[in-house]
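The authors assume throughout that readers already know how a fold can be written as discrete tokens. A single example would do more here than another paragraph of explanation. An entry of this sort, consisting of the sequence and the corresponding backbone structure tokens, reads as follows:
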Amino acid sequence: MRWKALRLLAFLVTALMAFPATADIRPYPDNFSIREIQTNGTKLHVRVGGTGSAVVLLHGFADTGDMWEPLAEVLASDHTVIIPDLRGMGLSAVTDRGFEKRNQAKDIAGVLDTLDVKRADIVGHDIGNMVAFAFAERYPERTTRLVMMDAPVPGVGPWDDILKSPLLWHFRFGGPDMERLVAGRERIYLDRFWNDFAAHPAKFDEKSRTHYADLYAKPGRMHAGFAQFAAFDQDVIDNKKAVSGGRLQMPVLAIGGDHSLGSTMAYIMRFAADNVREVVIKDSGHWLMEEQPKATVATIVNFLSGASAVNPRTLSAAEMGALTKNKAGAGTSGVAGIQTIVLSGDPAKAGPYAIQLKVPAHTNIAAHTHRDNRFAMVVSGGWHFGYGETANAATTALGPGGFYTEPAGMAHFAFTGDQPTVVYITGQGPSDTTYVSTAHQ
């Protein structure tokens, strides 16, 4: 195994040295072939290359499967790499329906069936992110690892708050009138996204822009792009139902650009998955493969190799806990002024849940234990957390993005300073709270 890892490392270093300084559309290597695969009532244009365990790469809006060439070239040394153009997009068949992400997950399952692939790593970016999530939820037994890259997931975590961003005006932009407005002006429309969502727009180079604009100007392609967004309402319904049925158990890598979603990508995924590893790519906006291809490829290859598949800062589903709603109850502190909001599930009952705590400034929560294990993350403010039976023990000051565990039966305490603080906790109920001292308030 060691020699294989060394060979992969050598290949990775050589390949990365050959990367262009900015994005560029390059042809796939000669060991890749093109397949036109009938699946789920449509036909997908699919690139297939390499040998070994399978990995599927799913592109997003304003891109096609062509975006993945730098990563595919590296992975093909020891993976069978499968890169479809999504339904109706790129060079896949024109269609006007079926853009719900759960249905597109079925598209991908059909591709794998045709290629006689039972299980695969699934990697997604942008809209491909949402299809990747739907595939992992619908076919967890076929998903070995999941990589989610810089895009929210409809209905998961802070989706409603994310929708309020004025940068996401295009989520509701679509329909026949909008298609007529954009017709013949595809480059103008797409430039808006390549520019606004990039840390350095020049890194999405002119050759790439021309290539993708020409593809999206073909009949039916922009309609498919708009339809991907129009399906979000149904995607929300499907994803909420899926998450309520159980959390993802496979290793998940959540990647965000530091000028885009950043650590929020991992924050979103922790509402739906237990084993989430967080990586923030420096000096990048949304277009990770175009803006920072070396760092992005290295991160994904490292994760898929298994070297960093498990995040030591998270717990498994069986090791995580829950809280309840509004008033003190199963797993809540009972401290006056703290607002507890249930985001999903019921901490008093068996099953996964997520809660949010809004804690006022200068609030103390005395040492206590829970019968279950918990995972917690600071969303905003400042949080002082420590283990021990008294608040005199050493504490750790955590800011936004800081996270920690509350192991079952281990006494711990927390308090806020001058800032009100928001913390979210996920777990597997039922839960409870037992204070070390009865005089806890």
About this structure: The domain at 2-304 is CATH 3.40.50.1820 (Rossmann fold).
